[in-house]
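As the work plan foresaw, the team has encoded backbone shapes as discrete tokens. One protein thus recorded appears below exactly as we store it.

:::
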Amino acid sequence: TVVIGEEVLSEGDWLSLNGTTGEVIMGKQQLCPPALSGDLGTFMTWVDERRKLK
């Protein structure tokens, strides 16, 4: 068991972390796949077309 402020977490309780902001969220959050956009998205499309290992 750990106490953070007024929150008490016990073994088996869910904690979620926002990897972008570092926010700690009580409970289990729904996951979303990462999105590639802009120049990185274009580059990864080129790489996928030319790679030999799949």
About this structure: The mean pLDDT is 90.
